[in-house]
Amino acid sequence: MTQPYPNEALILGAVRTPFGRRGGALRETRPDELLATAVGGVLQRTGLPADRVGDVLAGCVSQAGEQGANIGRQAALLAGLPAEVPGVSMNRMCGSSQFAVHAASQAVAAGDLDFAIGCGVESMSRVPMFLDLTLGKGDFRGFDGLHPDILRRYAIPHQVESAERIAEQWKFSRADMDEFAIESHRRAEAARAAGLHAEILPVKGVDKDGAAITLAHDEGIRASIDVDRMRGMAPVFRQPGEGGVTAANASQMSDGASAVLVGRRAAAEALGIRPRARFRARVAIGSDPVMQLTGVIPAARRALELAGLSIRDLDWIELNEAFASVALCFAREFAPELDKLNPWGGAIAHGHPLGGTGAGLMAKMLAGLEHRGGQFGLQVMCIGHGMATATVIERI
C-alpha cells in the first residue's frame, strides 16, 4: 500500500458521454457542447463547486473548425465555469485525453492546484480526421502533410497497414481477428443490457429522422453479429486473401466526450468529497513509427514496473481496441487472464472518438473496478506514429 503524501493526486470522479456512431445520434451536437456536458457532469456528480477548479486540460486530435480555438477553454465557459478558470487543449493523438488526465494529476501532485479536470472530446461526424480548413472548404490532409524527411526516414504507413504487419508478425489469422471482434461486441452488449455503465452520462441526440432522443448507451454496439457478412468483408487496404484488417475488426469512428476530476486528498476531504482511486503509474513512451501500434507492450511493462505490480496483480485491463491485432498481440505477450482484458468490450464495439477515448476508458475502468470490487487497473492505448500511453490506478 502506498503511503499518502500532502499533495497526493486522487481521482474524485470520472464520466463520459455515450459514444455515438459517426453520422449517428450525436451528429448534430457540437463537440464543444459535448465536452461541456462531460465537464459539467463530473462536477455535478462529485459536488465540487465550479470555482474550485484550477484548470481544464482537454485532449482533442483534430483541432480545426468546431474543435479549434482551444476547445478546452470553450467547453469550460460553456459548462458555466467562472471566467477565471483557464483551459488548454492538447494533442497526443489517440492518447490525448489519457495524457490530459496525467497532466491534471501531475499539476495537483506538484502542489500547483487543488483540483483539475482532465478531459477530452472528438466529433468525427462534424470534424473528420485530417480535416484542415487552411486547405479550403472540406479538403483533407492526411500523411501528405508530414514532413518529407520524416517520411524518408521512417516510411510511416497508415495505421491499418501497421495493424496488418502486427497480424503477420504474431501470426494472427483473419479468423482470429474476426472472433476477437465478435467477442468485443458480445461483452459490450452484455454490460449494456445489465446496466453496468455507471460512468455514462445520458445526452440529448437525434434519431435517423432527426427527432429528439436521449442517448444513454454506446451506439455502435451490435446485439447480434451477421457473421457471414463480417467474414465476407474485404480488407480495408490490401487485396482479399492478402490482408485481414477490415472495418469490422477495427475500432469504430465515433462522437463522444469524457472528463476525470482529480484533486488533492486534503482539499477533497475538506469538502466532503470521497476519493475513488489513486495513481500508481503514468507513462507515455515512443515506439517504432512503422509498426506504430506495438507501443502498448513497452508502455504496459513500464507502467507495471513503476507500480511494482505484475500482470497477475491486475483486476481490470482496459486496452484500447484500435485494431483486433493490437489487442491480440498484447494478450500474446502478457498472457493476462482474458476475463480481465476489456471485460465490457472495447472500441471495436463501443467506438473510438479519438480525443475523447482516453478519459472515457479511465472512467469505464474505474466503474468496472468498483462493480467487481477490484483494486488495480491498467489502461493502455496505442498511438499513431509510434507512441503509447499507460496508467495504473488503485481503487480506494
Automatic annotation (TrEMBL):
Keywords, ordered alphabetically: Acyltransferase, Transferase
Residue ranges occupied by any Thiolase N-terminal domain in the UniProt entry: 10-264
Residues spanning the signal sequence: none
Enzyme class: transferase
Thiolase C-terminal domain mapped to chain residues: 274-395
GO MF terms, alphabetically ordered: acyltransferase activity
Protein name as it appears in the record: Thiolase family protein
Organism of derivation: Aromatoleum evansii (Azoarcus evansii)
Lineage: Bacteria, Pseudomonadati, Pseudomonadota, Betaproteobacteria, Rhodocyclales
